[in-house]
Amino acid sequence: MCSRFRLFISILFLVAAMPLQAQVFSTNNGKVQFRSDAPLELIRASSDQMKGKLDIGRKLFAFSVPVSTFEGFNNPLQKEHFNENYMESNLHPNATFSGKIIEDIDFSVPGKYTVRAKGNLVVHGVSQERIIKSELTVTPSGCSILSNFTVLLADHQIPIPKVVHEKLASEIKVEVKASLIKP
């Protein structure tokens, strides 16, 4: 098992095992969408199986999406190549992001906040430290997160064969949406 994946699982267990007085919001059905807009082909896929937790007191979070759950490719062969040749989802089954919210947020006050999340994005088994800007909406029952960012395939050692470099963008646009609720 990859040491980064073990670290992510450890963080999830720590967040899950926090004392009852800690406020932990969670989701089991967050949505992750990606878009590859290359000169010869547009590829879109999404998954609604992102799981995650947010400890609002310590501003710690951990999110994970199973790579093989992405749907919506242009054809079944494209999905197969995504999982087998590029993401190698049998070796790297999850994409994860875990870290801390930088800004101070009063989660007892409903409203929209622009925050930056600093953490480690692990894709294809390769971890990159990132600061990702997000819109956080606090409600009486929890919060929602909306984030748009890019992922460079080279940063995560995902090769693009020359034969498909006009059909696969080197920079992938990602959107994450999740509603997290109080226990």
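Second entry:
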Amino acid sequence: MIYIFHDNFSYSRYILNGIKDKQNVTLIEVPLPHGLKRKLLKWGERLSISLYTPLSHNKEKKAVLRMIKPEDEVILFDFWTYENVRYLIKHLKCNTVHVWFWNTLNDYRPRIFSLSTDKTILFHTFDPQDANQHEMFLHNQIYRLPEQKNLATYEIYDFFFIGLNKGRFGTLKELNSRLLEWGYTTKFIIVDRHEKCGVIDGIEIRNKEVDYNETLQLIRQSKVLVDCTKTKQSGITLRVIEGLFLNKKVLSNNSAIKNLPFYTPSRIFFMNELNDKETLKRFMRTPILPATEEEKKPYDINHWIQEIVNTKTPMS
């Protein structure tokens, strides 16, 4: 049996629910802490001390841990909380634990690499730079095949962006202004829990997670997805793979995409080539062919699971 522990994020649920092998894969959703509990975790991370361990107070999840056998496979899916990871590794009976980073490493996550245990812990990432620096196994970005009933499209926006702030507001503000000046319609949403909801310079600010079903609807209503990769990230973002799976064009600042098998100039345009509106107009008018199943397969969640569990020994 494969057990996948994941945080309670709507986009995680959506992609993991695309797993076909329901008999051999069990998804275990861990609630996100709020209020004082979130602050205790944050302070503990900054001070590198233990102030609060969410899973140690969850009777339901502790009961699941007792069901896991030594031969089972366990995947910790984008667990950023050090205390949860430490608790799980200490109490799991399985021999091997896979830790998947679905974001680039920040200042606190490297603490996980220093965990002391007699288990085999294998670290996996989508980011080539992090894989090289921290000796992790490198895998493709992941997505899932959409349900056929949800494929209807009614495009009302030319360009759509959604994502956390992560220092990208200035870049997105400049891009949004240029696109509007050139006569395009845009829908830019930045999520920042430290800001008040509202509209700043044409960009919508939200301070809570946007449900992924709403994001999917906005993607289907848009012609081009804006991919603004944050500083120090070398792996491709979810926006690029959404474009591949949902047949949308992409405007990106990540020129490394040119090296990927599915790249075509009709599908992806780069911000550093956004010199005049005529060039962009030609890109917008050029039709794209839907990606083939072979192009999608390396990024499908089911392919990813097999890659993860087939990894048996640490990197040397």
